[in-house]
């Protein structure tokens, strides 16, 4: 691929995130992912039931998340009953999604109250609403995203020209990451259509492994466990996204809440965050048991579970964390502005870490920071 003229590269970069930021938010629940085998898992157990007094008198709380290993905190916390325990008689009503834009749409529509989600949909959702729809209230995971490709067709990122690379959904965190990476490498891609020097193919996570196996795509920029599933199908990790970030840490999953729900039911939000923190502690202290619970949750949600050759590397590639790693979200937005990818986004007030820091302090843990983007 010949080098692009500077003016053309700048135009390409501007088109990239501008189109991504305007990507329509498509509501849709996650269907069967099609990962792994049908083998029974010893860790499987029924979902915990509400028991005891209702928090703030609320009957239920609607929680959204993905059937991805990058969402290990809600998968384990709900499967193991650790979050429900903190909510007492307030029943969790879980909702699963394929990617972030659809979850943001559900939050905006009032269909969910709290959700685990990636940074790009949170940024876009917050910006489009003029800072009125959500707050990021905690962290959940770092890492767990890779570019995996057919090694016969792609050996290094320099081989991407003319290839077909999948992401889970237009405008989701992996889609934006791939588009930005391609732009930085000088590839010209139209973000709205995905056409250009590299073809960006938007497919559900559940469809990507089959498309890869059948040769419909040459690679994919995807979260776990899809990345490890592609490796198990003969793919090779061309790039671990951790290598693009200082210290190898970047936010892949946040905890968000609707501002209305946060204002009306702070005790419920605090209980969910307490359950999240305790879940992360449990995952770190019991990694083998946590893997079983992730698999059990995937079995319950999708009808199948992961083989060990997929689950083990997928789980290892994700770091659970209470820290929302706010600086990485801020830096991502700043880099986009500096490169001319996006008009100045409204990020002031996107974080409210008050309740999380209250929970952390009570647990004897250090408080986390909002990188100057906290609500007043």
How do the helices and strands line up, and which of them pair or pack?
Layout: H1 6-21, E1 60-66, H2 72-79, H3 82-87, E2 91-97, H4 100-108, E3 114-117, H5 119-128, E4 134-143, E5 145-149, E6 164-167, H6 173-184, E7 199-202, H7 208-213, E8 219-223, H8 226-232, E9 236-240, E10 251-258, H9 259-264, H10 266-285, H11 287-302, H12 308-316, E11 318-320, H13 326-338, H14 354-362
Parallel strand pairs: 1-2, 1-3, 6-7, 6-8
Antiparallel strand pairs: 3-10, 4-10, 4-11, 5-8, 5-9
Observed structural traits:
5-stranded mixed β-sheet, single chain, D-Maltodextrin-Binding Protein, domain 2, 6-stranded mixed β-sheet, 11 strands, 14 helices, alpha/beta, 376 residues, 39% helix, globular
Describe it for me?
By secondary structure, the chain is an alpha/beta fold. The protein folds into 2 domains: 6-21 and 145-247, Periplasmic binding protein-like II (D-Maltodextrin-Binding Protein, domain 2); 55-144 and 249-362, 3-Layer(aba) Sandwich (D-Maltodextrin-Binding Protein, domain 2), CATH 3.40.190.10. It has helices at residues 6-21, 72-79, 82-87, 100-108, 119-128, 173-184, 208-213, 226-232, 259-264, 266-285, 287-302, 308-316, 326-338, 354-362, and strands at residues 60-66, 91-97, 114-117, 134-143, 145-149, 164-167, 199-202, 219-223, 236-240, 251-258, 318-320. The strands form 2 sheets. The protein has a 6-stranded mixed beta sheet with strand order 2-1-3-10-4-11, with helices on both faces. The longest helix is centred in the C-terminal third of the chain and has 20 residues, at 266-285. GO terms for molecular function: ATPase-coupled transmembrane transporter activity. It is found in: Cell inner membrane; Periplasm. Belongs to the bacterial solute-binding protein SsuA/TauA family.
């Amino acid at each position: 691929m010949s080098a692009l003229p500077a003016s053309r590269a700048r135009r390409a970069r501007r088109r990239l995130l501008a189109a991504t930021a305007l990507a329509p938010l498509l509501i849709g629940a996650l269907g069967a992912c099609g990962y792994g085998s049908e083998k029974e898992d010893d860790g499987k157990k029924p979902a915990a039931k509400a028991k005891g007094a209702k928090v703030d008198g609320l009957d239920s709380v609607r929680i959204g998340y993905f059937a991805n290993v990058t969402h290990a905190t809600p998968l384990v916390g709900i499967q193991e009953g650790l979050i429900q325990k903190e909510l007492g008689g307030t029943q969790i009503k879980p909702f699963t999604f394929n990617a972030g834009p659809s979850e943001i749409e559900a939050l905006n529509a009032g269909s969910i109250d709290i959700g685990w989600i990636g940074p790009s949909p949170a940024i876009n959702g917050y910006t489009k609403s003029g800072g009125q729809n959500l707050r990021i209230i905690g962290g959940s995971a770092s890492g767990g995203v890779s570019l995996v490709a057919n090694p016969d067709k792609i050996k290094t990122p320099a081989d991407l020209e003319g290839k077909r690379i999948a992401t889970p959904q237009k405008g989701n965190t992996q889609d934006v990451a791939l588009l930005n990476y391609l732009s930085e490498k000088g590839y010209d891609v139209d973000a709205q259509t995905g056409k250009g020097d590299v073809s960006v193919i938007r497919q559900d996570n559940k469809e990507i492994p089959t498309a890869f196996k059948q040769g419909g795509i040459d690679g994919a920029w995807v979260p776990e466990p899809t990345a490890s599933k592609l490796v198990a199908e003969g793919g090779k990790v061309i790039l671990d996204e951790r290598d693009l970030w200082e210290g190898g840490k970047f936010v892949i999953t946040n905890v968000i809440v609707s501002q209305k729900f946060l204002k009306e039911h702070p005790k419920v939000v605090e209980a969910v965050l307490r359950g999240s923190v305790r879940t992360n502690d449990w995952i770190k202290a019991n990694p083998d048991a946590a893997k079983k619970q992730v698999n059990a949750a995937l079995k319950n949600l999708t009808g199948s579970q992961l083989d060990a050759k997929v689950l083990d590397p997928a789980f290892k590639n994700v770091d659970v964390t209470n820290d929302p790693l706010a600086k990485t979200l801020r830096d991502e937005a700043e880099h986009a502005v500096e490169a001319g990818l996006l008009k100045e986004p409204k990020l002031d007030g996107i974080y409210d870490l008050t309740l999380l820091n209250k929970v952390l302090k009570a647990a004897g843990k250090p408080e986390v920071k909002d990188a100057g983007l906290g609500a007043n």
